Amino acid sequence: MSHASPHPDYPTLEDLIGHTPLVRLQRLAPQWLQDRGNVLLGKLEGNNPAGSVKDRPAMNMIRRSQERGEIKPGDTLIEATSGNTGIALAMAAAIRGYRMILIMPEDLSIERAQTMRAFGAELILTPRSGGMEYARDLALHMQSQGQGKVLDQFGNADNPAAHVESTGPEIWKDTHGRITHFVSAMGTTGTITGVSRYLKGQNPQVKIIGAQPAEGSRIPGIRKWPQAYQPAIFDASAVDETIEVNQSDAEDMARRLAREEGLFAGISAAGACWAALQVAATVENATLVFIVCDRGDRYLSTGVFPA
């Protein structure tokens, strides 16, 4: 007896992850961009079902782990998260039938916590003072106590692999191979590592630029890790240059993107855009792509956008 779906022509939610649009910015410093022959493109990852670029690795980590027989529906999964990965994992766990425990510093935006709970995830909030490092340590401690399996976005090769398999090829195809510069926020580093691996495989001359927070800046989704917590998936050779972004510049760019482009993006996306504009001011005849990691409505309670 066949167990094939009786309705194979209709996609499931899982099928809609990826294939996000690439859009050209029109009003942010357009004259000097045009004078230099440059084009600036944003990849709208907020169009994914759970609203961020993290939908890709979240689903890939669960899917591949299940295929290898490491987990099965009904199991408990644990992850330390600063927000978007947690939301994406909560969605993916709901789709595939897992119990999801997310560990998150208490100072992150309330919209994120509410969204995770809406998908059925259980939240453990950790002290702000401990940051993500404490949350990561607690996740591993819970796993050692037999309370569930840590997917470990920071050390799981299925994270960057998602971008090698989908994000990178989409960018290459949608720019018709013309991309010269790729700019991404650096958090877990899965996006920049995976996209770089694919794009440099197509054309080693493509420049990969990472956006990191300047000293003293707190930008959700962008961070520098202490050496002991450097994500194991990070490949330093994949990044040609890093640009430090001030919190005030990222927040101002988020407001400008909404007002001048009609692009309501999150703060890390705006930080990547700011970095891309710094690069665009120094090059000619370039096609620059930056990742619009998520949407701005995930940050309304932070006060970045006017009430």
Helices and strands, in order, run as EHEHEHEHEHEHEHEEHHE
Q: Give the % helix.
A: 25-40%
- Tally the helices: what do you get? 9
Q: What's the β-strand tally? A: 10
Mean pLDDT: 94
Q: Which parts are unreliable, with pLDDT below 50 for 5 consecutive residues or more?
A: none
First-to-last CA distance:
58 Å
Strand content: 15-25%
The largest sheet has its strands arranged as 1-2-10-7-8-9
Helix-and-strand structural type: alpha/beta
Alpha carbon gyration radius? 19 Å
Largest β sheet strand count, sense and barrel closure: 6 strands, mixed
Rough shape?
A: globular
Enzyme class: transferase
Protein name: Cysteine synthase CysM
EC number: 2.5.1.47
Keywords: Transferase
Structure description:
The protein has 307 residues and is of the alpha/beta class. The chain has nine helices and ten strands. It has helices at residues 30-35, 55-67, 84-96, 110-118, 131-144, 158-174, 190-202, 247-261, 267-280, and strands at 22-24, 39-44, 76-80, 99-105, 122-126, 149-150, 181-185, 207-213, 241-245, 287-292. The longest helix has 17 residues, at 158-174. The radius of gyration is 19 Å and the shape is globular. Its EC number is 2.5.1.47. It comes from Amphibiibacter pelophylacis. This is Cysteine synthase CysM. Keywords: Transferase.
Record keyword descriptors for this entry:
307 residues; alpha/beta; six-stranded mixed sheet; 9 helices; 17% strand; Cysteine synthase CysM; EC 2.5.1.47; transferase
What is the compact description of this entry?
With 307 residues, this protein is α/β, with parallel strands linked by helices. It contains 9 helices and 10 strands.
